[in-house]
Amino acid sequence: MSTVTNRATSRPIVAPKLHHTTFTTLRLDEMVAWYENAVGLYPAFHGDQAAWLTNDEANHRIAFLSPPGLKHPVDKSHSTGVHHTAFEYNTFDQWLDNYIRLRDQGILPFLWLDHGITMSVYYQDPDGNGVEIQVDCFGNWEDSKQWISSALEFAENPIGSWFDPEKLVQARAEGLDFAEIHRRTRAGEYTPENIPTDIFLPELY
Ligand SMILES: [Fe+2]
After folding, report:
1. 110: CA distance to ligand 1 center in Å?
2. In this structure, which of 16, 73, 108, 134 has its CB flanked by the most CB atoms within 10 Å?
3. 64 domain residue, yes or no
4. CA gyration radius, the chain
5. Interval between CA 197 and ligand 1 midpoint (Å)
6. Tens of pLDDT along 7-24?
7. Is there a single domain that holds both residue 96 and residue 126?
8. Is 8 part of a structural domain of the chain?
9. Does residue 75 sit within a domain?
């Protein structure tokens, strides 16, 4: 059976915009600090049992609730729910520089994929939730939206091409530009030594 599909779906006539995601947590202060460091989300309000964070014009983009009575999840990696939230840089240099900045703090991604639409590195926050940090391969949403909807290349391999981010750092240092690095990544030139066998969130606890 073919896995290539792009099913037609009815859509709302007037669609609201995606605004924020809220997580429950037992590590409120740690989560606030991590998101501020990783993606520049600062608390618009940070109380004892909740915080609302933003890094753009919205009043908040990510919120955390920490009321009494919560417990940690069991086998989070293999449970349904949110796999990751994603943040996008405007340029390849900003994206790769942020990878280097976090790497130098000892914060490393656990997945590294060129999806064709974006080049993405995936981290875990202190609770183990996935956080994707990406850059659009086309430089604009119109073209990447068109590509994901129509490219056979995506339909046949929606997960994309693995890369070793350190090889990207080296390629840029050698003078290659984003388009060329993207092309070579898709061609398999920067494949990591160890390719993950699945995309489950690693179990942290
Ligand atoms: Fe994603």
Report:
1. 14
2. 134
3. yes
4. 18
5. 18
6. 877 777 788 899 999 999
7. yes
8. no
9. no
How far, in Å, from the CA of 158 to the mean position of ligand 1? 11
Judge if pTM exceeds 0.85: yes
Residue pair 28/64 in contact by the 8 Å Cβ criterion: yes
Q: Taking ligand 1, which is a single-atom ion, which protein residues have CB atoms under 5 Å away?
A: 86, 132
Q: Ligand 1 centre from 30 Cα, in Å?
A: 23
The CB-side HSE value for 103 (13 A sphere, CA atoms) comes to 14
CATH number of the domain that 54 lies in? 3.10.180.10
For the chain, how many residues are written? 205
The whole domain housing 162 covers 83-194
**Sheet (strand 42-46) strand order:** 21-24, 62-65, 50-54, 42-46
> Residue 51 Cα, ligand 1 centroid: separation in angstroms?
24
Whether residue 52 sits in one domain with residue 22: yes
State the helix-helix crossing angle for 178-186 and 165-173, rounded to 10 degrees: 140
Residue-wise pLDDT for 173-201, tens only, equals: 999 999 999 999 999 999 999 999 999 99
Q: Residue 4 falls within a domain, yes or no?
A: no
| Ligand 1 centre distance from Cα of residue 118 (Å) | 9
The total number of structural domains that make up the chain:
2
User: Cα(95) to centroid of ligand 1, in Å?
Assistant: 15
Residue 122 CA to ligand 1 center (angstroms) comes to: 9
What is the Cα–Cα distance from 170 to 186, expressed in whole angstroms? Answer: 17
Segment 70-125, tens digit of pLDDT = 999 999 999 999 999 999 999 999 999 999 999 999 999 999 999 999 999 999 99
Q: What distance in angstroms lies between residue 26's CA and the mean position of ligand 1's atoms?
A: 25
